[in-house]
Structures are given as structure tokens and as C-alpha cells.
Design goal:
The protein is built from 5 helices and 3 strands. By secondary structure, it is mainly α. The longest helix has 45 residues. The protein starts with a helix and ends with a strand.
Length: 202
Amino acid sequence: MSKNNNAKEKKVKPVLTEEQMKKRKSRQTKVAISCFVLLLGVGVMGNWYWENSDLSTKISAVSTDKEKVLGEATFVDATTEATTENEYFSSARVDRQTARDESLEKLQKVIDSSSENDAARKEAANKIAKISDIIAAENKIETLVTAKGVNNCIAVINDEATKVDVIVDVEELSDTVILQIKEIATAQIGCSFEDVTIIQSN
């Protein structure tokens, strides 16, 4: 008799409806994407801070000689030029990040919207993933290009990840440097050499 009762109790287990399962899955997806976007933002800002603090270290190293007179042309010119370049690249990074944040915010609203269908939410999630891939590729390009001896660099990949503009702070843009930059960029996004535009900032 007790065995029959146990069997009945097992059958009475609450079963989630399809709608409840969808809601639970949607909630989990929202939480995962929100965490991903937050981590992505922290990573990008950390990279930006690292690059700028590294450049600041180089600039401060130039001015460690306290015996230099502030009015000396060599000291003033070098610092002014470095500061101008630093401001240009910092501003460009902020502009790029602002545009990306706006895009991510719009896509997140689509995912959070109850009026949107599953197809629209899935497309928005895919676009968020693509933007994160683009950001990662841009950071990789910038890191590898600066490792080649370029003072500063910013890479801007288009939304389709088919073209990239690489702005560099380098005194001499030789054929060797151009080839190295193009090889780095094409390796990251799989485009052709013709789709990589290199711009000298100074």
C-alpha cells in the first residue's frame, strides 16, 4: 500500500509549462548577457587605462631630469607633442566606446522587451556577440601594432567586420611597418590587404 502511495506522490510532481520554461530561459539569457556586457565594458576600460598609463610613464620618464628649465625648447616641444598625440588617441577611444555603448544599449533593450519576438531577441544577442568579437579584435590589433614599435595606435573595425582603419603614431611609415600592420589586421578579421587602411596621425 505504501508503495502505491509513493508512486502517486512521484506523479504529483509539478511540471513546468512551456511558457514558464521560456520565461526561465529568457531570464537566464538576460542575466548572462548583462554580465557579459558588464565584463566587456570593464575589460575595454581596463585596456584603455593601461595603454594611457603606459604612455604617461614614458612621458614622465622624459621629464625626470629636474635640472631642465621649463622654457627650454626641447623639453616643451617634446611634452606638448606627446600630450597632443595622447589626447587625440584618448578622444578617439572614448568616441569609439561611446558609439559601441549606445549600440549595446539598444540591443539590450530589444532583448529585455516583452513585445519583441524570439527571433528579434536572438538577432540582438547575436549582434552583441559580434560587437564583442570586434572589440576583442581591435584590442588585439592595437596591442600587436604597438609591440612593433609604434608609439600609439587605434583600430576601428566596421560593423560587418570586413574592413579596418588603423591610425598610428609613428614618425616614419615605412613599407615594412605598413606590411606588418596589414598582416596583423588581416590575421585578426580575415579581410584582404585592400580592406586595411593605415592612417598616420602626425
